[in-house]
Amino acid sequence: MTIIYLIRHGETPTTGKVLPGRAPGLHLSERGRMQAANVAKHLARVDAAYSSPLERARETALPTCERFGQKLVLDDGLLEADFGTWTGKSLEELAKLPEWQVVQRRPGEFRFPGGESFVEMQHRVVGCVRAIAARHPGEAVACFTHADPIKAALAHFTGRGWSAFQQIPAEPCSVSELEL
Fold first, then answer.
1. DSSP label at 6?
2. Of 118, 14, 74, 135, nearest to 65 (Cα)?
3. 15 Rama class: left (phi>0) / alpha (psi -120 to 50) / beta
4. pLDDT digits over 123-160, tens only?
5. Which residues on neighbouring strands pair with residue 49, listed in sequence order?
6. Is 161 exposed, middle or buried (0-12, 13-18, 19+ CB in 10 A)?
7. Measured distance CA(74)–CA(83) in Å, rounded
């Protein structure tokens, strides 16, 4: 059995305000750096570490890699969803759009304008997690990623489906454990 820790990146200056997506250059806030250090202290074992290539995920992974002496492997399968033209928009602004109700109530039916669908994102993340687990049988692997990929993976692996997607928690620096 392989243990996969799905770890959301720490807080950034825009957490809860903006949909940053894959925009480069977004770093952890001071609080996010403290959250990342706290995660590293509480993990009992990490035999390998993978991360989304985005700065905020890599920065969250650093204390864990240092503590367990692991080299960080970047994997595009752990990237945030491609939010297309919604990238960089304020959540307050997006919440006023009629499409926001589809995102909240029926995410499995939604494609971000100019980006990927939730279904495509889930397929990418689930495939990535399965491939990582296959490379590390019997090990504990930390995967540093983003809220929506974590929620999509958990909806799949727990069998809860799209109806539960928006109810699955993925707070900054939360750790969700899967046994595969």
1. E
2. 74
3. beta
4. 999 999 999 999 999 999 999 999 999 999 999 999 99
5. 72, 142
6. exposed
7. 20
- The structure tokens listed for 72 are 């960080």
What are the tens digits of pLDDT across the range 54-90? 999 999 999 999 999 999 999 999 999 999 999 999 9
What is the full DSSP assignment across 133-153? HHHSTT-EEEEEE-HHHHHHH
Measured in residues, the chain has a length of 180
Distance CA 158, CA 156 (A): 6
Q: How far apart are CA 10 and CA 33, in angstroms?
A: 7
3-state percent breakdown (helix, strand, coil) of the chain, nearest 5: 45, 15, 40
| Amino acid at position 138, single letter | G
